[in-house]
Amino acid sequence: MLQRAFSKHKNLEGLIFHSDQGWQYQHKQFSEKLKQKGITQSMSRKGNCLDNSVIESFFGTLKRECFYGREKEFLTFKQFHKAIANYIYYYNYKRIKDKIKWMSPIKFRETFISNYN
Question: What range(s) does the Integrase catalytic domain occupy (predicted)?
Fold first, then answer.
């Protein structure tokens, strides 16, 4: 995972990599690879799922709306990757939510910013 990201993005210095405390993220080699690229590693506090609640909620929604019931449709990683990319576009630009005044996240952000400029 990291090598693919490193090969696609050359300058990662200053980036913050936030994760839960999964064993793979605590592994010394993983941490060292991040350090070598100038990436700061950030982890949620032990046993505190609220640190990641926003992203956990998003991934739950993504799995529910994009994946569950469609598992057999994705015959290749490329198909799966494209479906996720399409869903993220839909989620950000098209999917409206009542909590943000029945707007998409991008529209809400644009409206919020324009009201304060």
Answer: 1-113
SS3 at position 103 = strand
Per the structure, how many domains does the chain have?
2
Judging by beta carbons within 10 Å of its beta carbon (0-12, 13-18, 19+), is residue 38 exposed, middle or buried? exposed
- pTM here is 0.61
Collapse the DSSP code of 16 into the 3-class scheme (helix H, G, I; strand E, B; otherwise coil) and give the result.
strand
Dihedral sign, Cα of residue 51, residue 54, residue 60, residue 66: negative
pLDDT of residue 19: 85
Domain, as residue range, for 95: 52-115
Partners of 103 in beta bridges: 97
